[in-house]
Write a structure and sequence with these properties.
Blueprint lengths: L2 E10 L7 H8 L7 H19 L6 E9 L5 E2 L4 E9 L2 E2 L5 E4 L2 E4 L3 E9 L6 H16 L29
Length: about 170
């Protein structure tokens, strides 16, 4: 079984895919008092959707440290732009020791590997952008609701078009 041990962002190439002014226009907010709150809600919506879909919305270079079992596939967050290096004990693996197929990677022997790769969208799909706006609006409008009690639920939570981007392990 493959196990992600550590993640490091080496470089972020783009800013947030949705700006505060975009979110304010979507929510019809015309004052600046809540700009910092809206900015943090956008970041939370992006993080939640990235975790939900298993995709990276912003272009970034990452280093994943993964304990890998020989001949088992490990799936990197999509869309993968490039796999730049795979290191084992500070040595770069030759291509004959690994297989890369799209976002999937496997190695020929067990160990802890550092995978250096670039992921993210150059242009974010409109349905994902709209989901970021919808979640931001929902959390902004419902920021006073206490969801910690047993009877609380998210009945009005927006239906997400990005559910079709979701990666489901089999």
């Amino acid at each position: 079984m493959n196990l992600l041990l550590d993640t490091e962002v080496l470089q972020d190439y783009t800013g947030e895919p949705v700006s505060v002014s975009d979110a304010k226009a979507y929510m019809k907010v015309n004052f600046t008092d809540d700009d910092n709150l809206i900015e943090s809600l956008i970041a939370n919506a992006i993080r939640w959707l990235e975790n939900y879909t298993g995709r990276s919305f912003k272009q970034r270079s990452l280093k994943y440290s993964v304990e890998m079992t020989a001949q088992e596939w490990y799936r990197l967050p999509e869309p993968v732009i490039s796999v730049d290096a795979v290191n084992y004990e500070d040595e770069t693996l030759a291509l004959n020791h690994l297989t890369i197929a799209g976002p999937n990677i496997k190695v020929n022997f067990d160990g802890v590997f550092d995978i250096y790769f670039t992921t993210g969208y150059t242009t974010l799909p409109d349905d994902i952008r709209n989901d970021i706006l919808a979640i931001t609006a929902y959390t902004y409008q419902n920021r006073g609701i206490d969801l910690s009690n047993e009877g609380a639920n998210l009945v009005d939570f927006p239906m997400l078009a990005s559910q079709y981007y979701r990666r489901v392990p089999i």
